[in-house]
Amino acid sequence: MFKTVRSERHFGSPDALPGPWELAWEAEHLEGASPQRILEWAVETYGNRLALSASFGGPEGMALIDMVSKITDEVTVLTIDTGFLFKETTEFREEFMRRYKLPLEVLRPKLTIEEQVERYGERMRTCNPDLCCQVRKIEPLERALAGYDAWMTGIRRDQTPQRANTRIVAWEERFGAAKFAPFASMTEEWVHEYVAEHNVPVNPLLKKGYKSIGCEPQTRPVSRDEDPRAGRWSGMEKTECGLHWVAGKAVRGDS
Questions:
Q1: Distance (Å, rounded) from C-alpha 113 to C-alpha 110?
Q2: Which residues make Cβ contacts (< 8 Å) with residue 11, sequence separation at least 6?
Q3: Which residues are catalytic?
Q4: What is the CATH number of domain 20-250?
C-alpha cells in the first residue's frame, strides 16, 4: 500500500488527501523538482487512485508512461479513442503497451460516429470542433476520472500559449481530481533526449512529418519551420481540444 506523503503542512486526518489549497502549496515546493520526484510524490500520495492520461500521439506521453512504470505498476493508463484516430496510432498503442505492466483503459464516446452525425449533422463526420471534442474527448474523460482522485498528463508549458501557466499540480474542479503535469517545465529537446536515452518507442507518424498527432481528419504534417501545433485544426485558430484548462476555464481557440 502506498502511504500519503506528509510535508510540513498538515493535511488533516491521517487518510485525508490534499485539497486545493494544499495542492497550491505543493505546486510551489515541487516547482524545479525533477519529473521523477514529482511522480514519486504523486504515486505515494494517491496510489492506485492516480491515473495517467496519454494520447499515444506525442513522445511526452510515452516518456511519462516509461517513467511511471519504473516507480509503480498500479497506475492505470487512460487513453481516449475518438473513433477518428489514425490507424498507425491505434496499432502503436497496442504494441507499446505490450512492453509495460501498467493497466490500460481505452475510453470511448457514448455515441458512435454515425449516431453523432445523426444527432448533430453531417459536419460532425470530420471531427468538426468544438462540439466534437466535447462529445468524443472531454465527456469520456470526465466519466473515467470519476473513479480516480488524481490524474497526470505529459503537457508542457512551451507547447502552446494556453499552456504557459500550467502548474505542476493543481485541483481540477470540473473533473473533481488533482491534475499533475510533471513535464510542465521541461523542453521539447529534453523529451526527445529522454526517449532516445531510454529507448522509448514513439508514434511512427512522428517520422513522417507529423509533430502533433490527434484525430486524422484534423491533423496534417508540418514543415520544419512551422510550429508543431500548426498541423492540428489547420486553418483555424483552435489549438486545444478542451481537455486542458487555464485558470479553471476551457481554452477554445475559435471562440
A1: 10
A2: 4, 17, 18, 19, 22
A3: 241
A4: 3.40.50.620
Please report, for the chain, the start and end positions of each structural domain, with discontinuous segments joined by +: 20-250
User: pTM to 2 decimals?
Assistant: 0.83
Grid cell listed for 255: 471562440
Q: Mind listing the pLDDT tens digit for each residue in 32-49? A: 999 999 999 999 999 999
Inter-residue contact 247 to 174 (CB < 8 Å)? no
State the first-to-last Cα distance of the chain, in angstroms, to the nearest integer: 45
**How far is 196 from 207, CA to CA, in rounded Å?**
14
**Sign of the torsion formed by the C-alpha atoms of 69, 169, 173 and 132:** negative
* Grid coordinates of 165: 501557466
**Contact call for residues 68 and 180 (beta carbons, < 8 A):** no
Q: Does the pLDDT at position 79 exceed 80? A: yes
